[in-house]
Amino acid sequence: MVNGNIFHCRKHSWPAEDFVGRTALQLVRPLRAFLPRSLDFDGGAPPEQAWRRKLNSHANLLKEFSVTFMEAMRMMSLGLRLWSYVREEASHGRKAPIDPFTKERCKPSASQGVPLGGMGSGSISRGFRGEFKNWHIIPGLCESSPVMENQFSIFVSRDGGNKKYSSVLAPGHHEGEPDPDLKISCRQISPFIPHDYKDSSLPTSVFVYTNVNVTVLPVFGLSGENHVSAKEMWNIMKQNGHFDRENFSTGSSMPSSPGQTLCSCLSLYLGRATWRYTQFYGTSERSAINLVHDALTKYKLWEEEIEKWQNPILKDERLPECHAKLPAVHDGDSMSNSDEDSVSKFAAVHGPQMQEQTAGLKSEEPIPYLISKDGPEHVGKFLYLEGVEYIMWNTYDVHFYASFALLDLFPKIELSIQRDFANAVLYEDRRKVKFLADGTSGIRKVKGAVPHDLGTHDPWHEMNAYNIHDTSKWKDLNPKFVLQIYRDFAATGDMSFGRDVWPAVCAAVDYMDQFDRDGDGLIENDGFPDQTYDAWTVHGISAYCGCLWLAALQAAATMAHRLGERHFAEKYKLKFIKAKAVYEAKLWNGSYFNYDSGTSSNSRSIQADQLAGQWYTASSGLPPLFDDNKIKSALQKIFEFNVMKVKGGRMGAVNGMTPKGKVDDTCMQSREIWTGVTYAVAANMLLHGLEHQGFTTAEGIFTAGWSEEGYGYVLPCVYRAISD
Questions:
Q1: Where are the alpha helices (DSSP H) in 315-367?
Q2: Which of 48, 329, 387, 605 could form a Cys-Cys staple with 12, CB 3.0–4.6 A?
Q3: Is 98 helix (H, G, I), strand (E, B) or coil?
Q4: Which residues contact 66 (CB under 8 A, 6 or more apart)?
Q5: Residue 711 to residue 697: CA distance in whole angstroms
Q6: Of 609, 628, 580, 621, whose CA–CA distance to 673 is shortest?
Q7: Left, alpha or beta for 259 (phi > 0: left; psi -120 to 50: alpha)?
Q8: Phi, psi of 493 (to 5 degrees)
Q9: Which helix (H) or strand (E) is 287 found in, with range?
Q10: Is the pLDDT of residue 27 over 60?
Q11: What's the CA gap between 387 and 337, in Å, rounded?
């Protein structure tokens, strides 16, 4: 069992003394307080909170998704239709958004770190040995293999030049060390700075190498100086495979002092108007040079801003170490547009097919994306993928769990995304689509329904790339939209945003009336996986969808009141009161809410996500949906069963657990652990005063997804649970 006491024990993951000698540290630490900011003087020690791995270790290949024989048999028809769909898309030169049949080139392994660069501009990762790998330059495509030519190199000279060493700084790819007494530290700085929408969009990263006891360094000058220029030096390297000796003998050679640094900068500049950073640097050939210049002159300021953001958490002794070390990184793709008309840019990318793709729309209705410019937030359009396995932009059911980070760090981008979905609610696309789960057909986008995603090949125009089920019949997307809109409205206090999206909120709520078939105010599920758990069937009233619906009604009523829409405020309030009584009467069993109101074998299962609506309610400052004792009782039940009965709490919260304490094996998703759901459950516990339970739950998913294997999973979304 996991001992709760360890979660409040703060220990340094990587003591500085392990990396840099005590003598050097004694010289460096006093000096830093007196040096001007323009000088970069670093002791070379890694940060106290860091993931540690020996350079000669080997990355473990991690287990991947698998299904049981019975699950495979049940999904055989779906698999055949999906295989046919993948082949059909390939015949048209398009990649299917979901393709389990093609071997992915980005295999999960415990070898990669935080991606380089800002967001919305592509990314490159580095392995823990220093190699550049996992190239996400073209949205939706990934190349995992390192390019070994793209490395930093070092030349070492000792004893008056009698001993010379040279090496590529990609440890682990050679035997031994070129100079065992030499220690080099590399700081990698990317401009990911909250609320800085310009610098955080730049495709650049600065590398600061701190050297100890390096005797000879290459010498070069800037233009106009009487030295070989950096450009000339690297041209010689390119032609001859090594630096000219003159670069190492020009002028006097002095041993470097402890903490002396050398800087380099990487910039991958794609001069295409689609990318937001071209708004600031243009598309000329010199843009990359200007960007590198700015990065080298501003990186220390970037570091200071990052430290201001992170230190309140890293230095908070009340928080467990796992919370401080938790990586806020994303290894999918993201794309950020400039503030020009988004359609003109995508027309430039996709060519003349744009006219064809809008041919199925109702001619009497305006297409909001064809007439809209940049929104009031002036941050352009933003797209991101949840991972490289699912090539669908801004999947909204997942954004429900992930969007808190955007709201906190880049609220203007979050509001821009919500505006896109608000426009989408009022939009209809009548082109026919075949749904793969049952082989039926329907229209691509139904007016009033929140789309599952903003598309794949033609985002904003060809929405709902997901075509397993007809998501216009899902019961969770519309409530999730209302809840996210109200949370963002309450957090930002932006009345203009609230008024602009209000018509979509009303449409989303009213659309759900069709699913209240008995008129009791509460929506019912339809006996198929009609929610984000798209392999987990629900019958009748659902704990998950029903709780989201109650929370959405209360949020809509409160938002209406704040906007002066009294009629809607009263309407949604009365519906909420009526639905709440039915929900509790049908699902509450004395200690938690049943999975659903049906009579199936898993109807009494304990779902980890049963209080998702209450999580948003508490996060948005709204009154609780249920009595406090019921909320705490359900959360405690989830903790004792879904968390602690799976590997002693070391994996997170399994989605489904039977009342007998066994993992619910109804389907693959009931026995999975979802990262976002576990953190939502942990947050819900903390919001309701269950501190030990919340941090223990978060510690489990942290251990499973990060602590043991590093940032190993391309999509750390799902784990398989095995009960004790």
A1: 321-325, 342-350, 353-357
A2: 48
A3: strand
A4: 720
A5: 19
A6: 609
A7: left
A8: 65, 20
A9: helix 287-314
A10: no
A11: 20
Is the pLDDT reported for residue 237 higher than 60? no
Q: Give yes or no for a contact between 550 and 683, defined as CB atoms under 8 angstroms apart.
A: no
CA separation for the pair 641, 573 (Å, rounded): 34
Cα–Cα distances in angstroms (integers) from residue 97 to residues 3, 338, 385, in the given order: 43, 25, 11
Amino acid at the residue 212: V
For the chain, the maximum distance between any two Cα atoms, rounded to a whole number of angstroms, is 91
pLDDT on residue 7: 33
* Spatial separation of the C-alpha atoms in residues 447 and 431, rounded to whole Å: 13
State the Cα–Cα distance between residues 336 and 342, nearest whole angstrom. Answer: 10
Q: What is the DSSP string of 423-439?
A: HHHT--EEEEEE-TTT-
Tokens of 266: 């990487």
Task: Return contacts of 52-59, CB within 8 angstroms, 24+ apart.
Answer: 52/13, 52/14, 53/110, 53/128, 53/710, 55/128, 55/129, 55/171, 55/172, 56/171, 56/172, 57/172, 59/109, 59/110, 59/111, 59/127, 59/128, 59/712
Task: Give the C-alpha separation, 334 to 123, whole Å.
Answer: 9
Q: What does DSSP assign to residue 7?
A: G
For the record, the structure tokens of 137 come out as 């330059």
C-alpha to C-alpha distance for 414 and 695, rounded to whole angstroms: 27
| Distance, CA of 125 to CA of 103 (rounded, Å) | 21
Comparing CA positions, the residue from 686, 697, 608, 604 lying closest to residue 644 is 697
Going by C-alpha positions, the residue among 334, 155, 150, 346 that lies closest to residue 243 is 155
Q: Which residues contact 210 (CB under 8 A, 6 or more apart)?
A: 42, 43, 44, 184, 185, 186, 187, 259, 260, 261
Ramachandran class of 460: left when φ > 0, alpha when ψ lies in -120 to 50, beta otherwise: left
The pLDDT of residue 360: 35
Instruction: Assign 187 to helix, strand or coil.
Output: strand
Judge contact between 191 and 199, C-beta under 8 A: yes
Say which residues have a Cβ less than 8 Å from residue 620's Cβ, sequence separation at least 6: 483, 486, 487, 490, 491, 555
pLDDT at 654: 96
Q: Closest Cα partner for 7 from 518, 685, 721?
A: 685
CB atoms within 10 A of CB 696: 24
Contact partners, residue 512, CB within 8 Å, separation at least 6: 475, 478, 479, 523, 549
317 close to 49: Cβ distance less than 8 angstroms: no
Give Cα separations from 717 to 64, 365, 643, 644 (angstroms): 11, 38, 16, 20
Q: What does the pLDDT look like over 217-235, one tens digit per residue?
A: 444 444 445 556 556 665 6
Residue 720 CB neighbour total at 10 angstroms: 15
> Residue 224 is encoded by which pair of tokens?
């106009």
Confidence of residue 475 (pLDDT cuts 50, 70, 90): very high
The 10s digit of each residue's pLDDT in 141-150 is 777 777 776 7
From the CB of residue 588, how many other CB atoms can be counted at a distance below 10 Å? Answer: 17
Of 87-91, 224-228, 282-286, 575-579, the one with minimum mean pLDDT is: 224-228
CA distance 604 to 594: 5
Lowest-pLDDT range, 68-77, 80-89, 345-354, 377-386? 345-354
Whether the CB-CB separation of 161 and 155 falls below 8 Å is answered with: no
DSSP states of 117-182 = S-SSB-EEEEBTTS-EEEEE-STT--B-S--TTS--EEEEEEGGGTEEEEEES-TTSSSS-S-TT-
Sign of CA dihedral 640, 641, 647, 650: negative
Q: Residue 641 has what DSSP assignment?
A: I
Distance CA 64, CA 62 (A): 6
Other CB atoms closer than 10 Å to residue 212's CB: what's the count? 22
Q: Do 341 and 330 form a contact (C-beta atoms < 8 A)?
A: no
What is the rounded CA–CA span in Å between residue 679 and residue 608? 11
Specify the pTM: 0.83
Each residue's pLDDT tens digit, 630-643 = 999 999 999 999 99
What is the phi/psi pair of residue 56, to 5°?
A: -95, 10
Contact present, 132 and 146 (Cβ < 8 Å): yes
